[in-house]
Amino acid sequence: MNLLSVQGTGAALTIALFLFCLFIVHAIKLAKIGWRTLFKKLPPQEPKKPEPKPEPVYFIVERKKKKAKTDYSEPKRIQFK
User: Fold this and answer.
1) What does the angle CA 44 – CA 50 – CA 51 come to, to the nearest 5 degrees?
2) How far apart are alpha carbons 78 and 52 in whole angstroms?
3) Which residue has the higher pLDDT, 32 or 59?
């Protein structure tokens, strides 16, 4: 007795085939990358140069200004026509 119908079996086999092909394609791509890196020679490392002293940082500081006095004149009357 079949547990799956014909359509279910076909769908399961299609998904399995897709995953198998996906795995094969990625395995081939990774194998190519690995094959290229086997024969690649790394450049010789240059000796590290001592870092130069950092230049001093100067901050420009503004002097504090006195607040303007808040003296208001009398309010003006506005007339609408």
Assistant:
1) 115
2) 69
3) 32
Higher pLDDT: 18 or 61? It is: 18
User: Quick check: 12 and 4 in contact, CB under 8 A?
Assistant: yes
CA of 65: how far to CAs of 40, 61, 69, 70, 78, in Å? 66, 12, 12, 15, 35
Contact present, 9 and 2 (Cβ < 8 Å): yes
Residue-wise pLDDT tens digits, 23-55: 999 999 999 999 998 887 878 888 888 888 888
Q: How many CB atoms lie within 10 A of CB 51?
A: 6
Phi, psi dihedral angles at 59 (to 5 degrees): -105, 135
pLDDT tops 70 at residue 3: no
- Distance in angstroms (rounded) separating the CA atoms of residues 36 and 30: 10
